Amino acid sequence: MKVFHRLVSAEDARSIMAGEMRKLMRVVEVPIEEAVGLTAAEDIFSQYDVPPFDRSEVDGFAVDHADVDGAQEDAPVTLRIAGSISPGETGNVTVERGKAVYIATGSVMPKGSDAVVMVEDTRQHGDYVDIYRSVYPGENVAFAGTDISLGDIIAKAGTVLTPEKLATLAASGVARVRVFDRIRIGIFSTGNEIVRPGTNLKLGQIFDVNGYYFQTKLSSSGGVHAVFLGSVPDREDDMVKIIRDNLDSFDILMASGSTSAGFLDMLYRVIEKVGGSILFHGINMRPGKPTFFGRIGEKLFIGMPGFPLSSAVILNYIVIPSIRKAISGDFERPRVVKVPVKIAPDHMQETVYPAIITRNGYAFPIMGNSGSISRIRFADGFIAIPGDLKYVDPGDNVLYYPLNEREASVICIGSSDPLMEMAVLETDRNAKIVNMGSWGGVNAMRIGIADVSGIHILKNGTYNIPVLDESLKERAMLIRGFSRNRGFLSKSGISSFEEILDRGLTFVNRNKGSGTRDLIEEMIGNNEKIRTSMHGYLWESPSEAGVAQAVAQDRADAGVGLEFYAVKLGLKYHHIKKENYDILISREFYASDAGKLFIKALKSLRGMESKYPGYEIPENIGEVIA
User: Fold this and answer.
1) Which pLDDT does position 369 carry in this prediction?
2) Which residue segment(s) compose the domain that 154 sits in?
């Protein structure tokens, strides 16, 4: 078993990777139409003035401005038409005193003219034209070199060539550019449990996430040609083969899984077996600690964590910045933002969290485990907490790294529910959703960072209304949502906690801060025997689906969950009660256009009950109840 003897910092990991990747860079010359997303390998200069000649910006008449001085609607100036000029013509016509030349947009200004009168300000009759307004010298004229001058620098070395920059290059006469060639990266996944999406999933198997994410993310980041090679089981011979078969075709091979220090984690040994060397193994950060980096001859190898969130963080926080540093010579700089809540990271390790940016510019962390790929679904970016900090307080500054930042008219933080999510995304497909339980939603509303928060909190026999104390009422209202049937989920028909205890069965609990946990605690009441003796009471699932799946997969005998999941998974259901899932809504959002759309989306859920067994959608859904 391998032990991580020395962990490198995230900063050192990026520097080491970037330095090695820099050695891979090849300079090629390509036509500009093939250069989008690539990086200029040298400074690029304009080869012509833009525009290359004095040209008219409108359709009209080229004149000497002095000839039309004082022209007005009720006192026009009449000039003789000496000819016309169209785009692409050099034109031998000259504007003499008392004459004008008809000119089309983009045409060369004729000699003797210094302005253009728009055709809307003229009236032609035969060989003459009446001018109804005066013009100043240079009016409606683009002079040569006023946009770009010959020899101007268009793109510095290290600049990513976007379509807009390439358009500028084309305008200035540049047809071919010297750029850094795309880095070729071959990607594969490891693990006996990995299967391709689209296959029938068996117990213990998971769909491959990392391979597809790595390929698409790297290919869209610019400067990379990424290919997904498939997956291999945790067998040394299979890993050796896929590396040897593909090493010549790529600059870098990247694999996920089998990188940690466990008995079955062998990828770092495989690198040494094929003649490679490990440059570092382990980064002093969470998530993503098991990452390693090595060299095989002149090629590089990146060993990524298997858990999807861990690998996504390493890809965006370490690997892609390293690639950009290798190509452009500089890392992207993070920006400083404030956090609205207290965060206590793992001590002595830099900790990275996915986060959303709230409307007031704060970064709100999306908490969860390192296997949760859904945490980056709605994330705008990542925040990083240094390892030497025990915690950061609300209002403290942290470093923020953009990922997929976007504007959203709805921020939803609270208890997860498929109907709630449907209404939120119907309001705004770019909405930001953070599922962190009912009490998490209440707190988010209380500090002013949530627009809507779904809650199902039972207090003294009443759902949700008792939550609104006077301070919360100043910020929010409670609107009616819908009802959900909640009860015991099992395979054998469990009907009480006492039955679970008496039969020695295993229970799966819900996490503290969830509305379901409040219901469970109210049901148990003062019966401490259940809390101390019921097997599994301390096993907390963070989601409704997690409870149901634990029972369906025989990891637990019973749990308290929704009838909806019992029907979906073929479990037995014993009813406890109908709960109200209602929605806290900020007063400001309620009065906004987006708020009105959200209420409309809620009301449109009427009639969806047939697709959601165990749900009841009332007539007054979307109406204020407190």
Assistant:
1) 67
2) 27-50+147-180
DSSP string of 401-439, one letter each residue: EESS----S-EEEES--HHHHHHHHHH-TT-EEEE--HH
pLDDT at 496: 95
Say if residue 153 is in the same domain as residue 46: yes
pLDDT of residue 610: 87
Q: CATH code at 227?
A: 3.40.980.10
Decide if 391 contacts 342 (C-beta within 8 A).
yes
The model's pLDDT over 71-102, given as tens digits with 9 standing for 90+, comes to 999 999 999 999 999 999 876 899 999 999 99
∠ CA 295-305-358, rounded to 5°: 120
The average confidence (pLDDT) of the chain is: 91
Residue 345 covered by a domain? yes
Residue whose tokens read 């819908």: 482
Give pTM, 2 decimals.
Answer: 0.80
Q: Same structural domain for residues 158 and 190?
A: no
Q: Where would I find the H helices in 110-178? A: 163-171
pLDDT for residue 261: 53
Q: Judge contact between 535 and 557, C-beta under 8 A.
A: no
Q: 224 near 216, Cβ under 8 Å?
A: no
Find tokens 């390693």 and name the residue: 292
Query: Residue 362: what pLDDT?
Result: 93
Phi, psi of 245 (to 5 degrees): -70, -25
| 104 Cβ contact partners less than 8 Å away, ≥ 6 residues apart | 56, 59, 84, 85, 86, 87
In a shared domain, residues 20 and 35: no
Paired tokens of 506? 């295993």
- pLDDT at site 259: 63
112 domain residue, yes or no: yes
Q: Based on the domain organization, do 488 and 546 belong to the same domain?
A: yes
Q: Do 221 and 87 lie in a common domain?
A: no
598 and 450 within one domain: yes
Identify whether 421 is part of a domain.
no
Strands 206-207 and 194-195: what pairing?
parallel
- Is residue 508 within 8 A of residue 537, CB to CB? The reply is no
- Residues 453 and 385 placed together within one structural domain of the fold: no
C-alpha to C-alpha distances, 546 to 36, 250, 537, nearest whole angstrom: 44, 40, 15
Residue-wise pLDDT tens digits, 188-233: 999 888 888 888 878 788 888 889 999 999 998 888 999 999 999 8
Both 269 and 349 in one domain: the answer is: no
**Residue 505 backbone phi and psi in degrees, to 5:** -90, 170
- If you search the block for the tokens 């925040």, which residue do you land on? 383
Please compute the mean of the pLDDT values over residues 494-510 and round it to a whole number.
95
Longest dimension (CA), the chain: 111
**Total count of residues recorded for the chain:** 626
- Who contacts 515 (Cβ-Cβ below 8 Å, separation ≥6)? 415, 437, 438, 439, 455, 456, 457, 458, 579
Give the mean model confidence (pLDDT) for residues 37-55.
93
Give the chain's domain count. Answer: 5
Q: pLDDT band for position 1 (50/70/90)?
A: very low
Write down the pLDDT at residue 372: 65
3-state secondary structure of 295: strand
| Per-residue model confidence as pLDDT tens digits over 205-217 | 888 888 999 999 9
Q: What are phi and psi of 498, to 5 degrees?
A: -60, -40
pLDDT of 423:
96
The answer to whether position 235 is within a domain reads: yes
- Indicate if the pLDDT at residue 2 is higher than 70: no
496: helix, strand or coil:
coil
